[in-house]
Amino acid sequence: MDELTGLVEHLGSRNWRKVVETEQALRAAGQKGMQAVIFGMEHPNARIRRACTAFMDHHGTEICVAPLTERLLTDPVPAVRREAVHALACQRCKSQPLEADITLLLIDIYQNEPSRKVRYESLYALTQRMPDDRIRDLLFSILNEETDEKSRKLAHSALRHHDPGY
Considering the entire predicted model, what is its pTM? Predict the structure, then answer.
């Protein structure tokens, strides 16, 4: 595991070839590679933490849900939290969708996150989910209370999907 843990640091490289090689090696290591990436999410370097969350966007499995949620709720760097939202919510990039219901978590992030970019990422993720009354209620509250025009436009557009009567 020590070799893999050291390899995880290369995910944060500015050399894209090194990043691709590292991703391939971690994928080839299977479960041990994923454990190394999860361990890497605690790295002191935010670039490496963000790269680990990005790795999970494409290669994440159910064992990634708790570590991504932890990053989302505790990481001091907004870019890492934003990447964690995307990695948790984006099903398109994964070979097998995550089964965890993160709707309430995404709603909470939208309502309480200080970073506008992280909030918008959570809102976008919510708009891509299956119709849900909880999401519909949030979208209506955004239209009624939100001052951010980008969020209001997204809520308006998404309501057609989440409320057929809109």
Answer: 0.91
